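so my prof wants the structure for this chain in the tokens format not the other one, which i didnt know existed until like an hour ago. anyway here's the sequence
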Amino acid sequence: MLITDIRKTEYREVIDKTLLGELFHPAQIPGTLSARYSVAHARLARGRSSLPHTLMRSSEAYYVLKGTGKMHIGLEEEVVQPGQFIYIPPGAVQYIENIGTDELVFLAIVDPMWDAADEILGDTKPRTTGKIDPFLAEAIREAELGRSEGGIPIGSVLVRGGQIIGHGHNRRVQQDNPMIHAEIDCLMNAGRMRSYRDCILYSTLMPCFLCAGAIVQFGIRRVVVGESRTFLGAREFLVSHGVRVTDHDDERCAGMMNAFISENPDLWNEDIGKDD
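here's what i got, hopefully its the right format
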């Protein structure tokens, strides 16, 4: 007979920032079990949120035991409470927020059993459905402006409360200044603010470590990018510091960068710090 005592379960902070105690995982139990699912006891402190993540092969289900949360699955969101069961299909971007006054506690059931290789951190798919994001469109216009000036076509805008409060584009060539990347230019033009936590930074390209450092330093919690095909950037760094990253994999952004890199390889390598 196999019995697991939750009082003896060890908890650890996992990749999506929840505190997890593994109750049942066949791969971690000696011998051969016929079960293919795994069960974990998850905890999330007051005011905390798990990071967006996706199980590409497995489905997952949450059963809420304590607290009040807001569950996000793809474009849907719903307040959840004790006694409720939530199904999460394979391939869905998901995360949960603790919006209550107590610790949020739930069971997480994964079928087939959880496998680290199956989990991808960050928004892996666009969160829009065919519509052109107007803020990304504005960032693209900034990128095009930079290119028309003889610079590198990367644009950025800063959004607060549904309004653009800062524009910028890469001007390191125009200003002969290696620090003026698009995101830095955007933040400079937005001006000094007491807090950036309710802002969203848009960029046509995944931010590099220079710009990602500024994003983390100023406490920006969400970044939306046009694409990361041409440059992987510092996505993992951003996500590891609690920043939600949405990659639209936009054809216009990728096409613009591919054309520029093909025509100006030396300038591009200079911009990203490559020697050749």
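also thought this was worth mentioning. The two ends are 62 Å apart (CA to CA).
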